[in-house]
Amino acid sequence: xxxxxxxxxxxxxxxxxxxxxxxxxxxxxxxxxxxxxxxxxxxxxxxxxxxxxxxxxxxxxxxxxxxxxxxxxxxxxxxxxxxxxxxxxxxxxxxxxxxxxxxxxxxxxxxxxxxxxxxxxxxxxxxxxxxxxxxxxxxxxxxxxxxxxxxxxxxxxxxxxxxxxxxxxxxxxxxxxxxxxxxxxxxxxxxxxxxxxxxxxxxxxxxxxxxxxxxxxxxxxxxxxxxxxxxxxxxxxxxxxxxxxxxxxxxxxxxxxxxxxxxxxxxxxxxxxxxxxxxxxxxxxxxxxxxxxxxxxxxxxxxxxxxxxxxxxxxxxxxxxxxxxxxxxxxxxxxxxxxxxxxxxxxxxxxxxxxxxxxxxxxxxxxxxxxxxxxxxxxxxxxxxxxxxxxxxxxxxxxxxxxxxxxxxxxxxxxxxxxxxxxxxxxxxxxxxxxxxxxxxxxxxxxxxxxxxxxxxxxxxxxxxxxxxxx
Length: 471
What we know:
The chain folds into 2 domains: about 35-245, 3 Solenoid (Pectate Lyase C-like), CATH 2.160.20; about 250-470. The chain has 3 helices and 36 strands. It has helices at about 1-10, 25, 55-70; strands spanning about 20, 35-40, 50, 75-80, 80-85, 90, 95-100, 105, 120-125, 130-135, 140, 150, 155-160, 175-180, 185-195, 200-205, 205-215, 225-230, 235-240, 240-245, 250, 260-270, 275-280, 285-300, 300-305, 310-325, 340, 355-365, 370-375, 380-390, 400-405, 410-415, 420-425, 425-440, 450, 455-470. One of its GO terms (biological process) is carbohydrate metabolic process.
């Protein structure tokens, strides 16, 4: 009930409309009474995709911000049809980027296009802002393919700016859109395309609505996550189409908890996990609802990768249609439709806990089974699988027979595949579960349940069926 109330309250969220008035600004403010609007072309934006429009765009945002403070109404920065090449632009309170359906904001591809601090490497960035958003039907494009050093169908090798000492590791690339420490965010009717790194990133933000957003990233590029919800609460995602190489919807708890997340009516395809909790998981994940979602040919479907001692509870996955398949082993995942794990990342990490998970009305076709793995210090408890229709068959040539614990833990472990592979669980309910196995002669596995009784306790089964079928 709480999750339904949360969804209704967030979907009906009305942003505080602030306004202002200045004689110098009124000459360029359009005549719409609500909201105010300023086109970037008024400040000289060329929109030719060649010359940088950073300065006129930022001037339009700043002018809107002044107008907001004086008129107490929201202000839209208008992008008419065109291609607007830019370095980082900074969104401010009360300002909405309104991108025409034939307009594109193009992110720069040079290190000098971004601030000195790596934490601020975004094409569009809002910090400590309220009542902000992006809309209009247009596109923000990170030109991610220009960051590919070598194209490879297994996994592209990406450019890294670590040689400049601006950052460490091989993930030194800019994100596309970020909201850091913000509240009352509305992102709707916009296309977020080809990020060089993460696409849409919420950090320590509260009250966010994401609707009718299309996210597309190169399928062979790593780290181009769709939506990362980090240390942020009260988030609603609805009617989004996410087609990308890395994790599609990914809550992370790095410096604080993540509570009250709802995602509904979405379509997802990814070479990694469609929905993944973690692997940054130091704090609590609680009160999540994922409903009416289609996951198409992803490497992993619903995944909980708890590696850093955080606690997960009260998560519902309902009315979800999943298909998963093997891709190259360099990507985490072995075609599991559902993957729930709590193993510590390394010797310095402690085990987290996962409790009160409900999977209801789930249909899947997959090349691997469901993997449920607690750990000695962090068992899985009170897991329910109700109205499950599971089909297992192989249609790719990649080798099977492995259990994938990555990141960290035991990495890849040779193991016989089964419908449910289980360890370290206390409290497990199966109700109305139908498991079908391909009758193809090449199939070498049709084991419904694989577990050691010493580590799995309190199992309840009602109407559990397993049978083969002819393709």
